[in-house]
Specification:
Radius of gyration: 22 Å
Low-confidence stretches: none
Bound molecules: flavin-adenine dinucleotide
Order of helices and strands: HHHHHEEEEEEEHHHHHHH
Number of helices: 12
Number of domains: 3
Shape: globular
Strand order of the largest sheet: 2-3-7-6
CATH topology of the largest domain: Butyryl-CoA Dehydrogenase, subunit A, domain 3
Strand content: 5-15%
Number of strands: 7
Largest sheet: 4 strands, antiparallel
Helix content: 40-55%
Structural class: alpha+beta
Length: about 400
């Protein structure tokens, strides 16, 4: 594991800072993130700001750093991307909305796409012209994604889609969606799925926002009724959707591994504001939280070291996710303890406009569940690191149609 940046990496970091400082002011150290507005017009304005910032980055050569040069990227490593993301998070710039398109879909099209698909999608994605959502999860297919039941049937030159998706982040502001649907019911469940590129303006798509405990509504239920998709919008081949989706999910996990979070300074400042830093029990808890942040940082270094050497990410991503989940749970309880009775307030009545209640306490489950729950990560660690036996099941050999539902 390398703790120190090479001279080349340090120079790259300086280059990132120089570019970012031309476009935004540095954030104050320990400043809390702003609580997201729940008003629709504010959200649309935010999407526009993100699109504009993405365009600026693309024009200056700072978009798609890990994408190959021939597709408009810079051909750099995940380590460089991590350095840029780290620096970007310290500047007041509207980063967001394109993690799915650039971090997940782009790499999937580069590996599995036809020349026409590369031509149609890659450049617009980098320029921020297309917001994408991920239409994978269904009411009975989340952790067990391969059990999905949305149906795709070929009719002439088009696939006709019927079914329901859920927890689709940003579907209500997306231009396109990556959709998994079942195209063959007579083979085991992983082998009958296809990956579609879906224009979200196609008739038959109904997007219903789901209101969360935080007050926001960032994700949705999506109902698909006789939605028609041209044949050429299958990505990676009919019935090969599981392999295609694995490329997408591996890219998502790489994104999770490179994010380490940097919230300790904010929690410490909250403890100071409530005059709690002299309390020995609180001091111990702050020390533990700091340690947890450091653990995530060091696991992140392992993932980045692997990335910089071109080694594919292994189960350290799952370890990282479990470490982050433990920290978020502990941190959520600690901030509530620091605020005491104030912790029951909400919105403008609360300190920092309710940031701690909304984003830190209630919001902890977003990161703990999204991208694969912590229990599922523990299963991966159990099977792939500790070598424990897989859970017994017959779903890898039995045709999907014959499985109990
Ligand atoms: C913030 C956020 C954003 C999301 N965005 C998207 C998106 O854009 N697109 C999309 O398709 N999906 C999205 N999801 C959905 C996400 O992928 C699923 O919520 C996740 O995979 C879990 O599935 P589930 O909610 O159906 O829970 P379930 O799979 O039903 O799990 C319920 C509980 O059972 C546990 N469990 C399940 N299976 C096992 C097992 N084998 N062993 C031990 N415990 C188990 C789980 O850990 C959990 O505690 C998002 C979720 C969140 C929280």
């Amino acid at each position: 594991m390398d703790f120190d940046e090479t001279p080349e990496e340090a120079a790259f970091r300086a280059e990132c800072r120089a570019f970012l400082s031309q476009h935004g002011a540095p954030k104050a150290p320990g400043s809390t993130q702003v609580t997201m507005s729940t008003l629709a017009e504010d959200e649309l304005a935010h999407v526009k700001e993100c699109r504009d910032w993405q365009r600026v980055k693309a024009d200056a050569g700072w978009a798609g750093l890990t994408w190959p040069v021939e597709f408009g990227g810079r051909g750099l490593t995940g380590l460089h991307e991590g350095i840029f993301a780290e620096e970007e998070s310290t500047f007041d710039v509207p980063a967001g909305m394109f993690a799915q398109a650039i971090g997940m879909l782009g790499p999937t099209i580069i590996v599995h796409g036809t020349d026409e698909q590369k031509e149609q999608f890659l450049a617009p994605i980098l320029r921020g012209e297309q917001v994408w959502c991920q239409l994978f999860s269904e009411p009975n297919a989340g952790s067990d994604l391969a059990s999905l039941r949305t149906r795709a049937e070929l009719d002439g030159d088009e696939w006709v889609i019927n079914g329901q998706k859920v927890w689709t982040s940003s579907a209500h502001v997306s231009d396109w969606g990556m959709l998994l649907a079942r195209t063959d019911w007579d083979v085991p469940k992983h082998r009958g799925i296809s990956f579609f590129l879906l224009d979200m303006r196609t008739p038959g798509i109904e997007v219903r926002p789901l209101k969360q405990a935080t007050g926001g509504a960032e994700f949705n239920e999506v109902f698909l009724t006789d939605v028609r998709i041209p044949k050429e919008n299958v990505l990676g081949g009919v019935n090969n959707g599981w392999a295609t989706a694995m490329t997408t999910l591996t890219s998502e996990r790489a994104g999770i591994a490179s994010s380490r979070g940097d919230g300790f300074a904010g929690v410490l400042s909250l403890a100071r504001r409530y005059g709690r830093t002299g309390d020995p029990v609180i001091r111990q808890k702050l020390a533990r939280l700091h340690t947890d942040y450091e653990i995530s940082r060091f696991i992140g270094y392992r993932a980045r070291t692997a990335a910089s050497k071109g080694v594919p990410l292994g189960p350290e991503v799952s370890t990282m996710k479990v470490a982050i989940s433990n920290r978020l749970a502990f941190q959520g309880d600690l901030v509530e303890e620091l605020m005491g009775a104030d912790g029951m307030l909400w919105g403008p009545d609360a300190i920092d406009d309710g940031y701690w209640q909304t984003m830190v306490f209630t919001g902890q489950w977003m990161a703990r569940i999204g991208g694969g729950t912590e229990d599922v990560q523990r299963n991966i660690v159990g099977e792939r690191v500790l070598g424990l036996p897989r859970e017994p099941s017959n779903d890898r050999t039995t045709p999907f149609r014959d499985l109990p539902h």
